[in-house]
Specification:
mainly alpha; Multidrug-efflux Transporter Regulator, Chain: A, Domain 2; three-stranded antiparallel β-sheet; 6 helices
Length: 126
């Protein structure tokens, strides 16, 4: 069985939060869902759930919109043309930039956990 994530958890994971009260901005994800036909949530009891593949797609969309400064129509063109699949092996492609940024973020998280472990030991590392 694959793990599913609900819309609020996804908004938190993508850091789509209101600055004042840290409330998840679910409406942004629902808007992207309408704009990008590749996003198809699983609806269970009238609640949206997303697979890991869908989460990665949201991360890619957010990266292209926010980090690369692309427009929604530009991101649509890339997703519709499968350019992100074709560019997998080019070191200067948009997908390569996204993957580089993703690996860097994961590496930083691991380094922070290692620093906590080193500083406080295993019991107090959470």
């Amino acid at each position: 069985m694959r793990k599913l994530i609900n819309i609020s958890q996804l908004a938190i994971q993508l850091n789509l939060l209101k600055s004042k009260n840290k409330k998840p901005l679910n409406h942004v994800l629902r808007f992207w869902e309408k704009e990008f036909k590749q996003i198809k949530p699983i609806i269970i009891n009238k609640r949206r759930y997303y697979s890991q593949e869908q989460v990665e797609l949201f991360k890619m969309i957010k990266y292209l919109l926010k980090n690369e400064g692309m427009t929604i129509s530009g991101v649509k063109n890339i997703l519709n043309s499968n350019r992100n699949k074709l560019d997998d092996y080019k070191s200067n492609s948009l997908k390569a930039n996204y993957l580089r940024q993703n690996i860097k973020a994961k590496s930083n998280k691991i380094l922070e956990k290692l620093k906590k472990l080193k500083r406080y030991g295993k019991k107090n590392s959470s």
